Amino acid sequence: MSLATMFKRNSLLDERSTWITSVVLIVGMLAVVVLHALPTDHAWHLNGSVVSLLGKYLTYMLLALAVDLIWGYLGILSLGHGAFFALGGYAMGLYLTAQQAPLAPWQAVMAHFPVAALAVILAPGLLALVFGWLAFRSRVTGVYFSIITQALTFALMLAFNRNEMAMGGSTGLTRFDELLGFALAGEGMTVALFVASGVAVLLAFWGCKAVTRSRLGRVCMATRDAEARVRFIGYRVEHVKLAVFVLSAMIAGVAGALYVPQVGIINPSTFAPLFSIEVVVWVALGGRATLYGALLGALVVNYLKTVLTGVMPDAWLFLLGGLFVVVTMFLPQGVAGLMAHLRRRREVTA
Amino acid sequence: MSMMDSQRMQRLREFARPDRVFDFMAPAESPVDVRHGPILYLEDVSVSFDGFKAIDNLNLTIDDGELRCIIGPNGAGKTTMMDIITGKTRPDRGQAWFGSRHNLLQMDEPQIANLGIGRKFQKPTVFEALSVNANLELAMAGDRRVWKTLLARLDHEGRERIDEVMEIIGLSGERDRLAGVLSHGQKQWLEIGMLLMQRPRLLLVDEPVAGMTEPEMHRTAELMTRLAGQQSVVVVEHDMGFVRSIARTVTVLHQGSVLAEGSMDEVANDPKVIDVYLGGDESSDVREGT
Ligand SMILES: Nc1ncnc2c1ncn2[C@@H]1O[C@H](COP(=O)(O)OP(=O)(O)OP(=O)(O)O)[C@@H](O)[C@H]1O
Ligand SMILES: [Mg+2]
After folding, report:
1. What H or E segment, with its residue span, contains residue A12?
2. How far apart are CA B128 and CA B182, in angstroms?
3. Ligand closest to the CA atom of residue B52
4. pLDDT confidence of residue A213
5. In this structure, are residues B56 and B125 in contact, taking their beta carbons and an 8 Å threshold?
6. Alpha-carbon gap, residue A304 to A286, rounded angstroms
7. What is the pLDDT of residues B213-260, one digit of tens each?
8. Alpha helix positions (H), chain A
C-alpha cells in the first residue's frame, strides 16, 4: 500500500484538500526549522525573529480555524472571537508573570503549569458556555448575535483596562522570563514555540475536519441553511450551537496562549472589537467552510500586514477594508472558492 | 405515465402492500398513548397575530391511523395550525394533546419531533448544501444528542433504509447530488423521504403536490394512502383533484376555525363551503377535479 492510498483510506484524510493542507503545513514547518538551523552566515538562514513572526502567524491561523468552524459551518458570525483568544493569552500571561511575582495573591496558583494550561481552555470555554447558552436559548441569531459579541469583547476590553482587575491595566502583562523552567529569550525556545504552534494548528485542523465530516458537522451545515427544518427533525439546535461554539472558543484560547510567549506581551488591545473583525476578514478572504481557506487567509493577510505596515503604516486599514469589499463583491467564496472554481474549469476542459 | 414511473409505482405498491408491514416503515417505538382516544386532539385553540385572529376556536380530532385532508382558502390558518401542533407557535388559548398523555403546549419543536410528529413544510425545505443521501441520513430516527451525533456512524441497517426510501421517492439515481440542484418536485419528494426516515406516528404534510407533475402527483397520492394505517396523516392541499383522490374525511378550514367536516362529497355540496369558495375571490372551485 502506498503512502497516498494509506492516507486515502484514513477517513480523516480522504479529502484531497485535507491531504494537501497537512503536507504543506508539515513540510513548511520542517523547512523553517531546518533553515533556522543553518549557520548564521548562510544565505538561507532564517533568524530567530522571523521564526517568532511565523510562529505568531500560526497562532492567528489557529484563531481563524476557530472562527471558520462556527461561521463557515454553523453560520454563526462571531465578531468577538478576539475575546476568547485574549482570555487564553491572559491565562498564559498570568502563568508567565507568576513565575517571578504574581500581581495579586490569588494569581500565585497560576504559577503551576497544569493549572495555567487548564485555565487557557476553561476560561474561554466557560465564557462561551454562559454567553452561548444565554444567546442560543433565546434564539439570538444573525446580525444581533454579531453585535452582542462585539459588545462582549468591548466590555472585556474596558474591564481589563482597569487596574483593579490586577491584570496589568492598560499595559497588560509583559516582561516574561521563563516558560517551564526554560528562558524565553533562548533560541531553542523560539523554535520550540514555533513547533508547538504548528503542531497545534495541525491537530486543530484535523480535529475540526473530523467534526465537520461527522454527522454532527452535517447537522451544523443543515442548521446554517435551514435552522427550523433541523428543529422539526428533532435536533436540539441550541445544544449543537453551544457545543461547537464552546469548542471554537477553546481553540481560540489555545491560540492566544501560544501567541503570548512569542510576542512577549498581552494587553487589552487584543480585546479591541477591531481585532475580532480583522479575524473575520482573514476567513472571508481565505474562503469560508473549507478550513484550509481560513488558514490561508490568516497567513496571507497577516504577511501583507507585516510588509505594508512597514512601508506605509497609515494605509493598512484602508487596504484591509478594500480587500474585504473586493472579496465580498467578487469572491464570495474567498480564495479557496476561486481555486476550486479554477480546478473544476480545468477538469471540464481537460 | 412513463415506463420509469410505472415501475416505480409498482415498487411502491410492493413496498407498501397492506398485508405486509415493513418494520422500517413502522413508526419507531413511541410512548404515545392512543388506547383511549385520538392521536391528535385540539380543543378551542385560538391564536392572534397583532390582533388578527389567525386561529379562532379551532377544534380538531385525528384518530390513530387516519388520513385526513384539510382544505381551505388562502389565509384560512392551515399552516398556522401545523405551527401550533409542532411547537413553533404558542396559542393564546386552548389545548393540544398528542395521544392522551402528551400535552403539546408544554413541549418545544425537537421534543415534539422526537415524540413522533413529522412535518413537511409548505415551501419545500431540504438541506441544499448536503447530498440527497446526507439529507436522508440526518432525518433518520436515532439518538439526537450532540455527543451521539458526533460519533454516529451509518450502519448496515441504516444504509438499507436510506436505499429503500430513496427508491420510493425515486431519487436513487441522485444519491450523491446536492439537494440544492434538484427540481422543485424532486425536493418535495426528498422532503417526504426525510419524513419517512423519521418514522413518525403522525405526519403533517403541507401542500405536498405543489409544483409536481401529473405522474409525480399520482405517486404522492399513492404513497399518502399507503402510509395511512401505519401512521396518521394530515394533508393540507389546494389541489382538489389530489384531495379527491385520497380523501376519506375532509375538514374545511375558514378564518381560523372548522367550517365543515365530512366526506369529500358532503363538504363539496355544503352550501357554507360553496359560499366560501365561490363567494370570496378564491379562484379554485371546491367541486373541480371531479
Ligand atoms: N407569524 C405570523 N405573524 C403574523 N401573521 C401571521 C403569522 N403567521 C400567519 N399569519 C397570518 O395568519 C393567517 C393564516 O395564515 P396561514 O399561513 O396559516 O394560512 P394558510 O391557510 O396556510 O394559507 P395558504 O393556503 O396561503 O398557505 C394569514 O393571514 C397570515 O398572514
Ligand atoms: Mg399555508
Report:
1. none
2. 9
3. 1
4. 92
5. no
6. 13
7. 888 889 889 888 888 878 899 999 988 889 999 988 999 999 999 999
8. 3-9, 16-37, 48-71, 81-98, 113-137, 142-161, 187-213, 215-225, 227-233, 237-263, 273-286, 292-311, 316-330, 334-349
* Residue labelled with grid coordinates 493549572: A115
**Phi and psi of B53, rounded to 5°?**
-80, 100
Interface of B with A (CB under 8 A): 86, 88, 108-110, 113-114, 118-119, 121, 125-130, 134, 137-139, 144-146, 149-152, 194, 198
The segments of chain A whose pLDDT lies below 50 read: 1-13
Structural domain boundaries of chain A?
18-280
B130 and A222: CB-CB below 8 Å? yes
If you take atom 18 of ligand 1, which residue's CA is the nearest one? B77
Residue B55 CB partners (closer than 8 Å, separation 6+): B45, B46, B47, B48, B77, B80, B81, B84, B91, B256, B257
How many angstroms does the Cα of residue B49 sit away from the middle of ligand 1?
A: 9
Pick the CATH number of B3-279 from 3.40.50.2000, 3.40.50.720, 3.50.50.60, 3.40.50.300: 3.40.50.300
User: Which residue's entry shows cell 370570496?
Assistant: B280
Q: Which residue has the cell 502506498?
A: A2
- The number of beta carbons lying within 10 Å of the beta carbon of residue A346 is 9
pLDDT per position as a tens digit, B47-64? 999 999 999 999 999 999
* Closest in A214, A222, A240 to B127, CB measured: A222
What letter does residue B231 receive in the DSSP assignment?
B
Query: Counting beta carbons within 10 angstroms of the beta carbon of residue B175, is it exposed (0 to 12), middle (13 to 18) or buried (19 or more)?
Result: middle
Using a 6 Å cutoff on CB, does residue B22 contact ligand 1?
no
Cα distances (Å, whole numbers) of residue A98 to A88, A165, A180: 15, 15, 12
Are residues A246 and A128 in contact, defined by beta-carbon separation less than 8 angstroms? yes
List the grid coordinates of B50.
Answer: 397583532
As a whole number of angstroms, the distance between CA B59 and CA A204 comes to 55
Task: Compute the distance from residue B256 Cα to the ligand 1 centre, in Å.
Answer: 10
